Amino acid sequence: MAVHPSPPSDLPSLVEAYRAVVTSFADVADGLRESDWDLPTGTPGWTTRDHLAHVVHVEDYLSGSEHPAAGPAALDARAITVGNPAHVRHEFGVWIEEGVQARRDRDPKELTAELRGLMEIRSASMYDADLTEDTLVRAPMGGQMPFDKLTRLRLMDIWVHEQDLREAVGRPGSLDSAGASQWTEHVLDALGRIVLEEVGPDPGTVVILESTGPVTGRAGIRVTEPDEEGNPQGHELFSGQAEEGDQRTQAEIDAEATTTIQLSTHALALRAAGRRPTGETAYHVVGDEDLARRVLDAYVLTP
User: Fold this and answer.
1) Does the pTM of the predicted model rise above 0.85?
2) pLDDT at position 96, please?
3) In terms of C-beta density within 10 A (0-12 exposed, 13-18 middle, 19 or more buried), how is residue 162 classed?
4) Within the chain, which residues score under 70 in pLDDT?
5) How far apart are CA 164 and CA 47, in angstroms?
6) Dihedrals φ, ψ of 47, to 5°?
7) What was the pLDDT predicted at 75?
8) Under 8 Å CB-to-CB from 74, ≥6 apart: which residues?
9) Computed from CA positions of residues 13, 14, 15, 20, in that sequence, does the dihedral angle turn out positive or negative?
10) Which of 112, 174, 178, 220 is the most buried (most CB within 10 A)?
């Protein structure tokens, strides 16, 4: 599977992409009017203001600051009470919501300026001569993660939240950026798991998912017989690897039950981020339309 334009391929391009995605997000935030900051978004329970607060919170935490809810409420004035909102479903969601609530009343211009400053702080550490892609760095909720993995996650998260701002005010853009490429690759990489574990079509079924642009790419999975324990199995297509022991003729391959699902980068991003339901998503199907719908219904990759 290849995505074009491709995501960052080494440490220097990863750092450059990080700076680009933060700058683009901040530029969009700077362009919003005061009345835009209370607009609802595709993320349940969040306004545009909350997306900005979230991005700033995570970048601040990764720079070394304490989480605003550290310590029991009786002992720490920074503690935040989240309550039980419907959109907070797990421990990580509570951690995220605490960061948002801590900044919910802050002026957006102030938050945007803070984000630009945090980018400079975080970038400075990225130019450390001893830093490698495998260097363990601070990650959310007190964890650690290799620099490469964490930064790619940040590219995707910040880019998706930029799309949230753009959707709210009807200003599409940044659809051919490094963040878009990284997210599209992530989405296409998940096809096998989604088809095999979430949808479970019959052996012999082939599902192909295509991003038609501005970022282009495709992924495919051929469902094979389950293993001895009954676990679903499949063969990845477009990987450059021939299937071991595959003696079928081209005519037999062409006769397989193939379903191809095509979406623009924009539509694929909104669906896979859970921002737009399948019924409101523009997509084209060649093959089994019911199977395509079930695949897209299962295709939500955000926590």
Assistant:
1) yes
2) 86
3) buried
4) 69-90, 240-256
5) 9
6) -100, 175
7) 41
8) none
9) positive
10) 178
